[in-house]
Write the structure tokens for this entry.
Amino acid sequence: MKNIGFLSFGHWSDSQHSQTRTAADALLQAVDLAVAAEELGADGAWFRVHHFAQLASPFPLLAAIGAKTQRIEIGTGVIDMRYENPMYMVEDAGAADLIAGGRLQLGISRGSPEQVIDGWRYFGYQPNEGDTDADMARKHAEVVLKVLEGKGFAQPNPRPMFANPPGLLRVEPHSPGLRNRIWWGAGSNGTAAWAAKQGMHLMSSTLKNDEGGAPFHVQQAEQIRAYRKAWAEAGWEHEPRVSVSRSVFALTTDLDHAYFGGDGESADQIGYIDADTKAIFGRTYAAEPDALVAQLAEDEAIAEADTLLLTVPNQLGVDYNAHLLESILTHVAPELGWR
């Protein structure tokens, strides 16, 4: 059995070929797709976050989906912690989680290649002397984790506007349990182990540092095993979760073949995400259901993970993306024992 959700990049473009022309379209259609996914029996609605592009402020969207759905998990994959005010983020996350009834799965990380150079500087942040921007992201994350524990730390005003409870105050609204639903987007084996030591779940996408030259799914499976080993050594009491994301398209209609039939021979790709970091990018899976079942059964990382996030081409519209999800849930997942 696996949790199966979708991961939307939230793109929009003013193009005749796009059904998502504006930011408003992207946001409102995201809510509609989450509702449709829940009705189809999917387990999660997850969204990419990129500043200066896409769905850059996720919490209003997450709260809206929480108010319109009952069961489905609602997540981010991922929030770039270089840009975040940890205290304000905890307030927003607590409110969204309470509206959703404790269904928020908050994916965070040190960030990915950006739309602008050092965009976090425009948000008022810069690393301390001797630190990198990645160090700054991890420090912001550590503050979030600490504050989410819900312990008081702020000295109350002796003449407050409202009566205070006794003792030091915490950030409000506090959502119990959210601390154990934080995920870290890890691009390397080392950061996966660090996430385990912090008690965070692991998000591993279709891109990771190339560490050894093996096929992508083999390297990703090794990363997951390193994470689980570090988790066991850290002695956390709650169970770790691991997600992987994949581009998977079951070709069941002429339109499916027209859109994705040419991706059937897709392979891993190697590139550089910066001057010093060689990365491997996983293949796309696109085939008729019986062939797709055989291909996915060979993916070692999917086998290791408990959660599979299906990347969706959101600009093709809600109805078509719901069809893509239904095809996987109906024709592929049962044959693999995921349902």
Notes: The mean pLDDT is 96. The radius of gyration is 20 Å.
